[in-house]
Amino acid sequence: MSVKKVVAPDFEIEFFLPKYWLTWLSVLILYSVSWLPYRVQKSIGKLLGKLLKVIAKKRYNVAKRNLELSFPELSPEKRQTMLDANLDNAGMAILETGMGWWWPTWRVAQKAEFEGFEHIEAILAKGKGVLAYAIHNMNLEFACRIAGLKYPSVVFYRKHNNRLMEYIQYHGRQRSNKYMVHKRNVRGLISALNDGELCLYLPDQDYGRSKCEFTPLFAVPEVATTTGSLLFAKQANCETVFLVSIKTAKGYKIIALPGLENFPSGDDKDDVTRMNQMIEKMIMIAPEQYLWMHKRFKTRPNVDDPSLYD
Questions:
Q1: How many CB atoms lie within 10 A of CB 235?
Q2: d(CA 132, CA 189)
Q3: Can you give the three-state secondary structure of 118-164, one letter per residue?
Q4: CA quadruple 3, 183, 285, 276: dihedral positive or negative?
Q5: pLDDT tens across 131-167, in order?
Q6: Measured between alpha carbons, how far is 42 from 38 in angstroms, rounded to an integer?
Q7: Which of 89, 132, 134, 249 is least enclosed, having the fewest CB within 10 Å?
Q8: How many domains would you assign to the chain?
Q9: Coil, strand, or helix at residue 169?
């Protein structure tokens, strides 16, 4: 079956109009910073993290609340230390986007480490597709570029609302991936898996009440967890692995962990419960690098339940 891929957007003369000037300026700054020495970018990233605490107060408070809900056993001081480190990583994530989009391959390779990719190679050797479950670590944009050095993947893609940013984003992300399919093109991802491709899917966010089970995640007993992640494993000729990216003293390491046994089992609640246990395991490799600014616990088991973020 032919896969309907996301088509590259055209460059438009309209991009030179004044309404895009601020976008051009932002992109030019990010592009310029991306060519600075990495150690300098790390320092800038920390400064940006401190700035985010001021200008993104709502997101800061969400991250703080998520840590309170997830790790009630930790002292407030330890959670604050984790939160401060998380802000540093959030600031660096902005610059890692530029690194992922514009660094030459040789420079990306200098920062790349791989672990456990024999699990992916073994599945591909069987002629099957690889469904890689990943999580939203802060360095995800650059991590995808690194992973693409080994195996360019097929991923879901969401268009940017700003047409100039859409042009830049598409061409930046295309350097990491074999091709991209629209975020709602389920058949496209299944077809890619049946064609023996490596496909990424991120099941670690709150996607709402539809097609979910409420299962534990850290200290929160009932968390809306998508069952959409099971659909691909059920319908495609594939096997699963888990991918997590972490920042290390040397650079960035992409770790491939083996998939779950008897998965999917036919018991959706049990399967996504085990999925969340793996997500916990991946987050805890470097919890300060995870995207805690997302309202992961927004959807409550009952519509009348009070919000955990009020």
A1: 14
A2: 12
A3: HHHHHHHHCCCEEEEEECCECCHHHHHHHHHHHCCEEEEECCCCCHH
A4: negative
A5: 999 999 999 999 999 999 999 999 999 999 999 999 9
A6: 6
A7: 249
A8: 1
A9: helix
Q: In Å, what is the CA distance from 59 to each residue of 199, 226, 248, 291, 298?
A: 30, 23, 25, 10, 13
Whole-angstrom CA distances from 227 to 77, 100, 203, 204, 231 are 36, 30, 8, 11, 7
Assessment of whether the complete model's pTM goes beyond 0.90 = yes
Q: Within a domain: residue 280?
A: yes
Task: Tell me if 2 is assigned to some domain.
Answer: no
Residue 243 neighbours by CB under 8 Å, 6+ apart: 132, 133, 134, 147, 200, 254, 255, 256, 257
Q: What pLDDT, on a 0 to 100 scale, did the predictor assign at position 245?
A: 97
Write the single-letter amino acid at 90.
Answer: A
CB 243 within 8 A of CB 134: yes
Distance, CA of 263 to CA of 240 (rounded, Å): 8
Rounded to whole angstroms, how far apart are CA atoms 153 and 174? 10
What separation, in Å, do the N-terminal and C-terminal C-alpha atoms of the chain show? 48
Q: Which residues contact 198 (CB under 8 A, 6 or more apart)?
A: 120, 124, 129, 130, 132, 151, 152, 153, 154
Question: Which tokens sit at 276?
Answer: 């969340």
Q: What is the domain range of residue 254? A: 13-289
Residue 206 lies in a domain: yes
User: Does 3 fall in a domain?
Assistant: no
Report CA dihedral (19, 25, 31, 37) to the nearest 10 degrees: -160
